[in-house]
UniProtKB/TrEMBL annotation:
Gene: yhbY
SMART domains: CRS1_YhbY (SM01103)
Keyword hit for RNA-binding: yes
Gene3D superfamilies associated with the record: YhbY-like
Keyword RNA-binding (UniProt): yes
Protein name: Ribosome assembly RNA-binding protein YhbY
Span of domain CRM: 1-96
Keyword entries, A-Z: RNA-binding
Length: 97
């Protein structure tokens, strides 16, 4: 689990990132989960935007993404979900303790 301090640190790192995935009408599916998981392995921290036409609630989408990818939820802000997952091979982000 991430501490408050670590979440603040990750939020500041994520601030200038652009969302690289979008959740639309179809909601979250297995395939999207796999793609996001692969992207997390490379980047560790990423944003997913939730489109206006998405039928699911943004918190529901965030929970689905977390359970599919095994990532940590950093924050849900507006229609954007910020996820973090420590990379096994490309570890770059050093979290404050």
């Amino acid at each position: 689990m991430l501490t408050g301090k670590q979440k603040r640190f990750l939020r500041s790192k994520a601030h200038h990132l652009n969302p690289i995935f979008q959740v639309g009408k179809g909601g979250v599916n297995e395939n999207m989960g796999k793609q996001i998981e692969e992207a997390l392995e490379v980047r560790e921290l990423l944003k997913v935007s939730i489109l206006q036409n998405c039928d699911e609630d943004k918190d529901e989408v965030a929970r689905s993404l977390v359970s599919l990818t095994g990532a940590e939820l950093v924050q849900v802000i507006g229609h954007t979900v910020v996820l973090y997952k420590e990379s096994k091979e490309n570890k770059e982000i050093v979290l404050p303790s």
